[in-house]
Structure formats: C-alpha cells, structure tokens
Amino acid sequence: MSSYQEGMDAYERGDYDTALKELRPLAEQGHVGAQSLLGSMYDQGKGVPQDYQEAVRWYQKAAEQGHAWAQVNLGIMYAKGEGETQDYPEAAKWFRLAAEQGDVLAHFCLGIMYEEGQGVPVDEQEAVRWYRLAAEQGHASAQFNLGVMYAKGHGLPKDYVLAHMWMNLAAAKGVKRAVKACDLLEKHMTPAQLAEAHRLAREWKAKGE
Length: 209
Known about the structure:
Elements: H1 4-12, H2 16-28, H3 32-44, H4 52-64, H5 68-80, H6 88-99, H7 104-116, H8 124-135, H9 140-152, H10 160-172, H11 176-186, H12 191-206
Helix pairs in contact: 1-2, 2-3, 3-4, 4-5, 5-6, 6-7, 7-8, 8-9, 9-10, 10-11, 10-12
C-alpha cells in the first residue's frame, strides 16, 4: 500500500522513482498532498519528463480541494502560460484563494498583479497592501518591492526612511539589487534619516522576523 510519508521522504532525498511509485496511486485516489507534489514533479521534471500540461492537471486537482501551495503553483502556471494559455485573471483567482489561507508567496504574487495590472485593475494601494503582508512575513522580494513603493511614493506617501529599512532587510537576505538601491537612496537621505532607517531595520531583525 502506498504511503504518502514514504513518498515525501523519497522526494526530499532525491529518490524520485520511489516518490513517483508511492505518490501516483495516492494522487489518483484523490490525496491532495500527493496530487500537489506530483504536479511539482511534472513541473520540474523530477522523476518524470517535464510536462507542464500534466503539472497543471495535478495542481488543478489539488487546488480545487483547497490546497494553498497547489493554488499558488497553478496561478504561476497560468501567469506564465505554461501548460495552459496565459490567463492573468485565472492566475489572480488562484493567487487570491491561496492568499486567503495566508500563503506568503500568494500575497507577493497578488502584489505584482495589482502593481502591473495583470488580471486585475492597476491599484498601487492594493499592491502595497499585499506586498506588506508578504514583507512582514519575511519574504525578501516583497520587502524589496515594498521599499521601492515607499521610495517612489507609489500607493502610499514617499518615505525614504521606510524605503531604506525594507530594502536593507531585503539586502540582508541576499537580494542583490536591494544593495544597489540602498546606495542610491542614501544619496537623497540626511544622516539623521539614515540613522533612523538603520535603527528600524535593527529593531525589525530583533523581533525575529
């Protein structure tokens, strides 16, 4: 009898043949976790030939059962046009469903959708709201994007101190463009503003983010 835990363990150690053997029967029986992971295997070509259409098929089955991770991945497939015709409104729908479950990547993706007007009307305030939700959960790219919104005054009042704080946090997590952005921002900041930005960043890190 197939075991989901055995399939998960095999997947995590890179034994994709065993993972496939354990997970496929469960996925076909409607096991939501197995369906989502099988979608990922087809998406990335792990243990099977890469097949975006099969990835979408399995993500869809899991997403329709309310699996947030599958919903986000399905949204990404629709946004990129992989395995399905590119469909931003459909992508936004799945991102929103996952976001309602608190998924941090879904929050970030919705921020992009609202900033770019992909599948939803352009709404910089909504973009800021979703970026902030992701940034406050430690998502580095969301922290950078929120910093950019503060620096440009898009969707909220321009604030170089908060812009620098968020970009600094992103830079500390390896977002290379955030390092350059901080350097550029500092040319427009007073020493007092810069000191305050560093203080806020230290406080944020001290909270254990």
